[in-house]
């Protein structure tokens, strides 16, 4: 028997061509051939080995040759290793050929499936084309399609599917010149009446939905000027509303400390406009620019230039004068610019005076179709002032200082500015992620309960959101590995990276708890100490991160760190934009001071990144977060109360360790929930705008 090695083993030595004339098993010679082109189009051909002999004959042949070599003492030592390598190479080639054949078979199957799929798509496309016999053209004209749609509506009336009023709405929609009927309905005319009616309803609702022109008159907007919860709310909500098709603008004071680097195309309008204040008209400069795609107007007083030249936004003895000047100037500017917005959206007591000003002074200046919506981020700050000061901006104190208007419910000699905003607004939205409006009226109204009770029908509660584009683990460029609810492997990578960054032992199975805070004053250190002492006995790791750019971890937190002296606890006294993202991604649990966190939005971000939000409590057994179970509470409140709301830290740790599969399902489910600005928060505001426009 002869064995020939071809280009399949290019390094095979020439002496391997060996004659074996005394072979006991006369078999056809085997050849290891080069692979060539074939009709499969992948550049490979099937190796010419006899498949039934691959596992037996080839190995047998190699063994016989090895025995032949062993019979020659002078060649045995010299070539024994070479033959072993040859046999291994031969087996590897057989294995690779099998893999290639399997790949070719899979490729054939994929081609067949692709062809079937293309045929199916072609059949579906053909079915979509209405068949009206010979001579029908897919590019039918609008009149033809419109006529048939009207006839189908007649059929729906006769069969009792719809009433005359509904039919009238559908006919009006179809006859509207703005409806491109040929493009929108020509492909569904062949559908049954029920399917066609569903499509018509969908299009009718789409046509009925009106895009609103909304102008925010406010004192904060992230990232231009940020103090509290108002700043991220204005920006997040405005972007969400614009994504829904609404036109949104913002008017702000031109503070001395504005972050103008965040404003695109900032320019001063040369023409000055005048605003009424303290019995005279006063000039203002106007600056315009764009912030994250939102048009922003900045008002800068000339005569009262000191109003907005302070280092801080709030906390001055003349805050009332400062902000009623800005409120009046904003309305004067809107009149001067000729704008006629659908909604003036005002915020907190600082611009609540816009409500009385609008209805008593401005409504007759071309604003008959404009409505007022007030947002309150809490009723604890209301601004009580002498009634006579209302005249500064052109209001009549004698008309307004009444129990049903601006007179304070308790200190009746004073005017309550926030109360006036509630009374004079068409809708009032109070921002709270976990409380219903009934609980807010009963327990959180700070003396405004009688007023809120009277105006209960126009009060809504909306949750805060967060920026889902900046905080999304599936596309977060700050993370070493992205991940999502359907694949949490990347979260384990982030956990190891966080442990390494913090100098903790790198172990994915250890429970990692983090606490993110803005100021040390916001942290209940005594409760945290108790939690750390209890959990550290179970081998839990802790990371504390302060994200205030100005102050790191101060002396109080430093002494806390010294007191603990635990190798499993780390205090990160640093700040950079990437670190909070890594902390949320790498943690199993995030400790929260409150589930209603409008500034840092810790619970919302924790859920999005697959970390359980667990509230800080005095002891694990004593805490039960007050979450409203009212049917009118927010979806976030209902969700958090059924998942993490009553979960103590010890319970969470035990569940992670004792039932990891159930815990992972809970975390994955949490990550699918949408609590961004675009979700419930935007929906409630969108509904409120539509509601006030129908008044």
From TrEMBL:
<comment type="pathway">
    <text>Glycan biosynthesis; starch biosynthesis.</text>
</comment>
<protein>
    <recommendedName>
        <fullName>starch synthase</fullName>
        <ecNumber>2.4.1.21</ecNumber>
    </recommendedName>
</protein>
<keyword id="KW-0808">Transferase</keyword>
<keyword id="KW-0750">Starch biosynthesis</keyword>
<feature type="domain" description="Starch synthase catalytic">
    <location>
        <begin position="213"/>
        <end position="452"/>
    </location>
</feature>
<dbReference type="GO" id="GO:0019252">
    <property type="term" value="P:starch biosynthetic process"/>
</dbReference>
<dbReference type="GO" id="GO:0009011">
    <property type="term" value="F:alpha-1,4-glucan glucosyltransferase (ADP-glucose donor) activity"/>
</dbReference>
<feature type="coiled-coil region">
    <location>
        <begin position="100"/>
        <end position="127"/>
    </location>
</feature>
<keyword id="KW-0328">Glycosyltransferase</keyword>
<dbReference type="Pfam" id="PF08323">
    <property type="entry name" value="Glyco_transf_5"/>
</dbReference>
<keyword id="KW-0175">Coiled coil</keyword>
<dbReference type="InterPro" id="IPR013534">
    <property type="entry name" value="Starch_synth_cat_dom"/>
</dbReference>
